[in-house]
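In response to reviewer comment 3 from the previous cycle, which asked for concrete evidence that the modeling workflow produces usable outputs, we include below a single protein chain processed end to end. The sequence was submitted unchanged, and the resulting C-alpha cells are shown without manual editing.
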Amino acid sequence: MIRIKLLSKFVNKFPRLIIAVIIVATIVFGVFAAGIDRQSDLAGSIPSSHPRLKEYLEFMEEYGSNRAVVVVASSDDIFAPQSMQTIDRITNSLTDLPFVVSVSSLTNLVDMKGTPEGLASGPIIPELPQSQAEADLLREGILPNPWYSGNVVSADGKSTLILVNLEYISVFEESKLMLDQITTAVDEANDGLEIHYAGAIVMEQQINRFLNTDVLLLIPVVVFCIVLVLFLTLRSWQGVLLPLATVLISVVWTVGIMSIAGRPLSFLGYVLPVLLVGVGSAYGIHIVARYQEGIRHGLSGQEAIHNAITSTGAAVWMAALTTIAGFGSLVFSKMEMFKDFGAFSAIGVTIAFLISITFIPAILLLLPDRPAKEAAPTAKPKRRNGFIAFTENALGHLAAWSAKHYGLVSLGVLLLVFGALLGWPRLTTTFDPGGFLPTNSDHRVAEAIVNDGFGGSVELDFLVKGDLNDPAFLNNLVAMQDAVEAMGLQRPLSIADLLIKTNRALHNDDPQYAVIPEDPAIIPQLLFLLSLSGSPDEMMRFMNFDQTEARLSMRVSNVMHTTDRAALLEKIEDLAGSIFGADVEARVTGSPILEMVMMDIIREEQVQNIVLSLITVLLIVVIFFRSFIAGAACLSPIVATVILIFGFMGWAGVPLNTATAIIASLATGIGIDYCIHFYQRYKEERRRGLSIDEAVAETGRTSGLAIISNALSVGSGFGVLLLSGLGIFRSFGGLLALSMVLTALGSITLLPAVIKLNARVFGDKVLLRRKEDRNV
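The workflow returned the following C-alpha cells.
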C-alpha cells in the first residue's frame, strides 16, 4: 500500500517540482506518442509459436507475400476499346512503382499457344481492340476459357481484376504510402472506368480512416460529457479542468510508453483514450471534491490538500487497484493485441491515479486560499434540490426494500441469470475486419463485386508435398480441384492446369491432349517449356523451387461465417487424405486460417479471462475488507452482470470478436468500484450504531446517487462509441455502457439483498471486518 501520509508531505513541500516534472514528462511522452507505429498485419496478433502462424510465414517465405491490392475495374463492357486501353495504362503505371513485385491483368497475361511450327508463348491479347467488332471477338475468346472467366474477368464481362502483388511489409505507415501511390497511379491513368479497391491493406487503411475520424470526433464528445458531469457536480473550474487534465496527461503518457516499449497501436488500442477519459476522471473528482469540502470548512490550502490526500487517497487507490486488476487480467491472453491492451490500460489507470494525487494537489496548493462562495461557513445551509432529494430518498427506499425482500430479489436475479445462461450456447465467434466497415464503404463495395463475380475475395491456399514429375500425383491435384469445385467453391488453380494447357498447346491445341501426360519423362519437358515462357513467375506461383510441393490457390467469400470456414477447412483436409492418402504431408493456410485461429483463441480464453479477472478482484477486495464473505458479497453483482451481458449477446446474436471478448474484464474492473463504495459506506453506518436495515437504507440514500451518477457518466462516455463509424465499436460501447448500468443497479439492489441474506445465514456481524466494527 502506498504511504499516503508521506506522499501528502512530499506534495505539500515540493508542488512546483511535481508540476515541472509532470509537464516535462508529458512533453517527452508526447513526442514518442506522436511517432507510435500501428499494427496492420493480422499475423502480429497471433502467438509466434502457434503452428498455423508458422505455416503461414513459411508459405510467404516460399511463395512470396500474399498481401496484394486488388483493383476492381468495372464498366458496361470491360472489353470495349476504351476500357481495354484504360486497363492497359493502369497496368503499366502500376508496374512502374518500385515496391510492386508484379501486376497481373487482362492486358498483360501470357498464354501458351500451339502453332503448326510448335509451341509459342505470348500475351492473351496480342493487340488491344480498336473497334467494337474486335472487342466482341476478344470477349468470345476469353469468356469461355475457365482459366480466365471468373478468375481475371467476371462471367458477364463487366468487371475485371488487376492484381498488384507487393513487397511484404507489416509497418502501417509504409503500407499507407504504398496504397496512396497505387491510388494516385490508377487515378492518373483511369479514363471512365468505375474503380474500387480490395485486399487486406485496403481494408486496414479504410478502418484506420474511420478510427482517426472516431478519435477526432468522439473524444471531444466524451470530454464534453465528462465536463458537463464535473460542472454539475463540483460547480468550479478546478473541478472541471483538473480532472480533465489528469486523464489527458495519462493518455499521452500511456501512448508514449507504448511507443517507447516498441509496441504498435492495434485497432483495439484506439479504445484506450476513451477508456482512460471515462475511468480516470473519477480519481481527480474525489481529490478536488474533498479539497473543496476542506476549504468550505475553513481549512487552509495545505490543510485541505493533506486532508484530501489522506482521507481519500487509500480509497481512490483501492478503486484504481481493482480496476487495474480487472484490466490487467488480459495480459495472460495468448493474443498480443489483448496482452497489450490489458497491460497498457492498467498502466494508464495507474498513471491517472498517480497524477490525480500529485499533480492536482500541487496545482491547488499554488492557488490562493479562498472558500467557495456558495458554501461559506457563515452561509445558511441550502435546501437540497427537489429532484436530487427525491432521487436520494427513492434510492434509499429501493436499497431498503431490496434488503427487506432479500429472498424475492435473490430469486429474481437467479431467474434472470438462468435465462441468460440459456443464451450462452447461442454465442458465436466471428472475425471479419471488413465487416466492421459500413456497407457503402469502398472496400465493402469492391468485396461485393469480387464475391459475386469471382467466387470470393479471400485467398485460401492448399499445399501438398509430392513429386511434380509424377503423373499420378498431378492427376490427384486435378481430382482435388474437381472435388473443391464440387463443394460449390470457385475452381482452384494449380500447376496441373498449366501443364495441361502446355501439353495441349504442344499438340496444336488438340482437345484430346488436354490431360496430364501418362509418360513421366514428358513432365520435366513441359515444366522446362513453362520456365522459358513469357511468364515463368506464373508457374512458380503454384510450386516450390525444388518441385516437391504443389499449391492450389482458391478464393472463398469474406462473408463466410467463422464456423462455416472451420467446416470448410475440415472438408478440404478430409479430401486431401482421401485423394492423396493419409500419410501425405498437406496443409491449408491463408488469412482465413489466421482469422479462425484468432477466434479459437478468443473462444478458448473467454472463460479463463472471466474467471481470472473475478478471482483477482475478489482477492483484492477480501484483503481490503479482511473478510471473504464481504468480498464475495461485493462480487455478486459483478458475476450477475457478466452472465447477463453474455446471455444478452447470445440471445441478441451479438458475436464474440476482438472487442466484445474483453467486456468481462472491463466490466469487472470498473463495476467493482460501485460495490466497494456501497459496502464501505454501509460499514460506516453500522459503526454509527445503525441496524442492518437502517444502514442499508442510509447507504442507498447517501451513496446511491453518487454510484448511479458515476455509472451514468462513465457509461455515457462508452455510449459515445455508439456514434462510431465502425460496427465493432458500436457493439462494444453499447455493451460496456449497459454493463455499467447493470453493476450500479446491482450494487443498490442485489448487494443489499446479499448483505441481509448473509446476516441471516452467518449472523448479524459476519460482514464487519474488525473487532471494533462488530461491537456496534
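DSSP finds 26 helices and nine strands in the chain. We consider this sufficient to address the reviewer's concern, and the full set will be provided in the supplementary archive.
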